[in-house]
Design a protein that fits this description.
single chain; 77 residues; mainly alpha; 0% strand; elongated; transmembrane helix; transmembrane
């Protein structure tokens, strides 16, 4: 019951939006890292560092969404 009452938190969204927009800078960098990691893992599938490189790229692409969710969850109703 308590979780249903505070589903919409506009104040957390408004406060987190500038930080999410700043973190959008990391999205193209993460996409490039992911692309290079994918190519490297195709060329050398035995290298485990390439898989980790792809994971870092994906986490950088998801970074703005995680920033917004952190602010939305951190600000009470």
């Amino acid at each position: 019951m308590e979780g249903e009452f505070c589903e919409c938190r506009p104040l957390g969204f408004v406060i987190g939006l500038p930080f999410a927009l700043i973190s959008l800078v990391f999205c193209p960098v993460g996409a490039i890292i992911w692309f290079l990691g994918s190519i490297m893992s195709c060329l050398c599938p035995c290298c485990k560092g390439c898989g980790e490189l792809r994971n870092v790229g994906v986490s950088l692409v998801k970074f703005p969404i995680r920033v917004l969710r952190w602010f939305i969850e951190g600000i009470p109703c």
